[in-house]
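step=encode ok
step=design start
structure_in=
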């Protein structure tokens, strides 16, 4: 009997986030996880706009896919524009788990790489440029894979503090202690 992969919908608003999703899917499969991420490119904008775009994209994609094991959205914490409560409610009503990056994705990546959850955008960018010679914003999954072990270790640490990321990692069969 062939076990089907668990289909997981993951949205993000930019190429960096979607490259990260592709990279994480590859690492999950490499780890033995039976997952298939379906990436949804969301409309850029404030938090509510991104969540609304994710809802529309997820609903359209789900019609074709059958059973879905999770709906996740990668979202920058610097994009709320006073509408955070509306975006959070919309996500909750549509069973979307929000993985909210402290500040933005670049800071998140720096936090993973440095294993420092306090690293903000300017320090994260400087840290990445200093310790990751080929770092560029909007790096593809191949660039992320150059620092695979460091990023996975940081991701595991981050997942211990973030419920939605922990849930996603566990769907991928990663061990989070």
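sequence_out=
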């Amino acid at each position: 009997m062939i076990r089907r992969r668990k289909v997981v919908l993951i949205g993000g608003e930019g190429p960096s986030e979607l490259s990260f999703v592709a990279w994480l899917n590859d690492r999950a499969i490499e780890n033995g996880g039976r997952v298939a991420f379906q990436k949804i490119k969301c409309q850029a904008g404030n938090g509510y706009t991104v969540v609304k775009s994710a809802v529309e994209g997820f609903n359209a994609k789900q019609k074709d896919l059958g059973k879905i094991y999770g709906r996740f959205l990668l979202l920058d914490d610097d994009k709320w524009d006073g509408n955070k409560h509306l975006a959070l409610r919309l996500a909750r009503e549509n069973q979307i788990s929000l993985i909210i990056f402290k500040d933005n994705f670049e800071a998140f990546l720096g936090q993973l790489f440095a294993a420092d959850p306090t690293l903000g955008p300017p320090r994260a960018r400087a840290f990445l440029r200093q310790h990751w010679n080929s770092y560029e914003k909007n790096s593809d999954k191949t660039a992320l894979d150059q620092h695979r072990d460091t990023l996975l270790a940081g991701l595991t640490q981050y997942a211990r503090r973030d419920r939605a990321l922990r849930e996603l990692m566990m769907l991928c069969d990663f061990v989070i202690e």
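step=design ok
step=annotate ok -> Residues 6-171 form one domain.
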